[in-house]
Design brief:
Number of helices: 11
Radius of gyration: 21 Å
CATH class: Alpha Beta
Helix content: 25-40%
Shape: globular
Order of helices and strands: EEHEHEHEEHEEEHEEHEHHHHH
Distance between the termini: 50 Å
Structural class: alpha/beta
Largest sheet: 4 strands, parallel
CATH architecture: 3-Layer(aba) Sandwich
Length: 308
């Protein structure tokens, strides 16, 4: 949006930790502002005088007052309600593939409830449902690549579950279409050009970071025991220790394929061609290779020696 000439407010809970967004535009064009999605006044203040709003707020694990209902259901409705009251022209809501009001996981259930609230207050909203998002600062490939760099075994849960990873810039381009009024109101399911199992994605990732690892899909009971243990650790510590490993709710969500529906509107309807994974993963996962950026230099040197 900065490239489009817009002034952008980035609403966050801790603006002092979001100063890195300021260079995304010209001086003063991109500004982090204080906002808590659970508070009416701060949300209203953050969007005061805005022409468009994009709600990207979501959580993977309930922690403290940031429960799934308060953030993904009530929070989404609050943003839409206040946007409607202020007469804001465009609203883009970032949801997730698998949003289901009858879903087994609280994550999927509250994503669906959030969508319902958004549509009730703001019928012309553009709702984007991305699959797992990858990019420089993602919490998916970076997380598992870090684990793979430390252990000869990479344990995962629900290894047969299918994913359709989507590049963060492609999701952003879809959001821009919604902001500019170039996308019809409604729900768009966003997935990349490749569909692979969780285990296959991890094996591809290990190839990229040049690590030979055993990708081990844990049996159901073992995965549940791990999730239960970390959930109990979070509870026993009175929320001082957050479960960032695996929760029981995440385990439920992992049991459902995360791919675009055959009859859903998607990138094609937005005129966007999604990017392939491998070239982008190589551009930021190199830091998890045994010698980091020097692995490519070493390989090039070997090739030159072989040609000689």
């Amino acid at each position: 949006m900065a490239k489009e000439g817009w002034r952008v407010r980035v609403a966050v809970r801790r603006p002092n930790e979001a100063m890195h967004v300021k260079p995304y535009g010209t001086p003063g064009q991109v500004e982090p502002v204080l906002c808590n999605i659970r508070d009416d006044a701060s949300v209203a203040a953050a969007m005061q005088g805005a022409d468009a709003v994009v709600n990207c707020v979501g959580i993977l694990n309930a922690h403290g007052k940031n429960t799934f209902d308060s953030v993904q259901a009530d929070g989404a409705g609050r943003v839409a309600c206040l946007a409607q009251e202020q007469g804001i022209g465009q609203l883009v809501h970032i949801s997730a593939l698998g949003a289901d009001a009858e879903g087994a996981s609280d994550y999927a259930r509250t994503k669906a409830l959030g969508e319902e609230s958004v549509r009730s207050y703001f019928p012309n909203a553009v709702i984007l449902r991305p699959s797992v998002i990858f990019g420089t600062e993602d919490e998916f490939f970076n997380r598992f690549a870090g684990m793979a760099s430390l252990s000869p075994v990479l344990p995962i849960a629900k290894g047969k579950t299918l994913f359709q990873p989507v590049y963060v810039d492609d999701v952003a381009r879809a959001a821009v279409k919604g902001i500019l009024g170039e996308a019809a109101p409604g729900i768009y399911e966003l997935g990349g050009p490749e569909v692979k199992s969780f285990a296959a994605l991890m094996r591809d990732m290990c190839d990229i970071i040049l690590r030979r690892r055993l990708v081990l899909s844990m049996p159901g009971f073992a995965a549940w025991l791990v999730a239960f243990s970390f959930d109990m650790l979070q509870a026993a510590s009175f929320q001082l220790i957050e479960n960032k490993v695996l929760s029981r709710d995440q385990l439920k969500n992992l049991g459902i394929d995360n791919v675009v529906s055959a009859d859903a509107k998607g990138f094609a309807d937005l005129g966007i061609t999604p990017e392939l994974m491998e070239p982008i993963l190589e551009s930021y996962l190199w830091k998890f290779r045994p010698s980091g950026q020097y692995d490519e230099m070493t390989a090039s040197a070997r090739n030159l020696k072989g040609e000689a």
